[in-house]
Fold:
Amino acid sequence: MDYLAVIVPSLAVGLVFYFAMKAIFNADRHEREALAKAEAEEDRRQLRAVD
Structure:
């Protein structure tokens, strides 16, 4: 059972790291999607203003 005391903290840190990175990448993906949507909308507005 001593091996569990050695491996559990490493697994816990690994899981925390995994979920933290997953949250960061998801936030980045959503931010990029929102930025692309905003830029597309701005492009449409500029095209309407030119016509």
